[in-house]
Amino acid sequence: MRADLALVGFGNVGRRFAILLDERRERLSREEGLEVRVIGIATRRHGTAYASDGLDAVAAVAAVESGQSLSNWDGRPAGAPPSDSFETIARLARSSAPMRVLVETTTLDIVAGQPAIDHVRQAMTAGCHVITANKGPVAFAYETLSSEANRAGVQFLFEGAVMDGVPVFSLLRETLPELEVRGFRGIVNSTTNHVLTELEEGAEFGPALACMQDAGIAEADPSLDIDGWDAAAKTAALANVLFDARITPHDVDRQGIGPELSATARACVATGRRLRLVASGTRGERPCVRPVELPAHDLLAGMRGMANALILTTDLLGDIAICQLEGNPTQTAYALLSDLVTIRRRLRAPLPEPPRRSPSPREH
Ligand SMILES: NC(=O)c1ccc[n+]([C@@H]2O[C@H](COP(=O)([O-])OP(=O)(O)OC[C@H]3O[C@@H](n4cnc5c(N)ncnc54)[C@H](OP(=O)(O)O)[C@@H]3O)[C@@H](O)[C@H]2O)c1
To answer: Along the 364 residues of the chain, how does pLDDT read in single tens digits?
Structure first.
């Protein structure tokens, strides 16, 4: 099956996804029957590109990374590039491919989740599936967007929004049917966890944060991590999907971290505890994000550096934990790839009925 993709957002994650698609092209074809083409790319300041018969997305990565604009790079296709992200999605919608997918990886907007929500809505209304690593749509508008996806008969998947490529939403959806999640507690932001781990070892706040920015892990605006907004967006996403909470990140009781916590982080270590930024939620209650002093035996206390963990309290399995020991844009790109394959598998035509066997004489 041919899948045409538009990549709206072409930063750390979008570019890594373009490379991963190229690396996995043969395998996707062989094992999933998926022939993927990137036909459109849109950014905010690095231009746009479009080719109805497919772009060289790897060359586009090299162009952006060498500082060129996609609208006038050496390898740009003939014809006028789309004016913006919305025209890029409109062109995707005109593709005749049986599977058309918007890959939304723009920056998290913590005010209202825009323009990502509008990107998602435009694509779905036009009959395109959506996969996104952006927390905005699911944190601000999960209920309405999933209803709109159902009405349009398309998929809206967002595995990368929480804990990158480690399955959270698909684990519950595909593997743990009928399990009721009653609460969660976790470390869901790698940047703050790395900074707190460094602080407890005596490092300075600024250099510890800069390391996460250099690695492409921190948000474009690192105050979103430090002030707890990224964790609040993930908390709202979890509450919306797991509890049908219908909240936004602004409804999360939120506290971030700052250099003033250095002494507390070191004092915790001296008494066998650990300071961690913990996100938690219970069905029917206001979720929160705040620094918590954890006893050493708490699973979350053992999460160091970029490690994340989520403990789900369930009705039938008790407490179960999902851990991610390291995080990087490759893992988020994998989340997008896994969502893409999920769509393909859901669209796969049902297997034909096995041919009726005529009974052998003995069976009479
Ligand atoms: N980095 C990670 O490890 C990670 C992990 C999980 C989830 N995420 C989420 O994934 C998303 C992408 O992260 P990232 O690290 O790739 O961010 P990034 O490097 O800052 O890239 C963001 C991209 O979005 C583009 N963009 C922003 N606003 C736009 C608009 N209005 N229209 C079109 N393009 C727009 C930017 O264009 P310009 O380059 O021209 O500004 C850039 O290409 C974010 O929502 C983030 O929260 C990231």
So the answer is: 999 999 999 999 999 999 999 999 999 999 999 999 999 999 999 999 999 999 999 999 999 999 999 999 888 888 999 999 999 999 999 999 999 999 999 999 999 999 999 999 999 999 999 999 999 999 999 999 999 999 999 999 999 999 999 999 999 999 999 999 999 999 999 999 999 999 999 999 999 999 999 988 888 889 999 999 999 999 999 999 999 999 999 999 999 999 999 999 999 999 999 999 999 999 999 999 999 999 999 999 999 999 999 999 999 999 999 999 988 899 999 999 999 999 999 998 554 454 554 444 444 3
Name the strands in the sheet holding 48-50, side by side, starting at the edge strand that comes first in the sequence. 48-50, 35-42, 2-8, 99-104, 129-132, 156-157
Kindly state if the Cβ of 159 falls inside 6 Å of ligand 1. no
Among left, alpha and beta (phi > 0; psi -120 to 50; other), residue 274 is: beta
Q: Which atom of ligand 1 lies at the shortest distance from residue 45's CA?
A: 40
Q: What is the pTM of this model?
A: 0.94
* Distance (Å) from CA 133 to ligand 1 centroid: 9
Please identify which residue in the block is written with the tokens 């996104």: 132
- Ligand 1 atom nearest to CA at 43: 34
Residue 135 Cα to ligand 1 midpoint, Å, equals 11
How would you class 171 by CB atoms within 10 Å of its CB: exposed for 0-12, middle for 13-18, buried for 19 or more?
Answer: middle
Residue 11 CA to ligand 1 center (angstroms) comes to 5
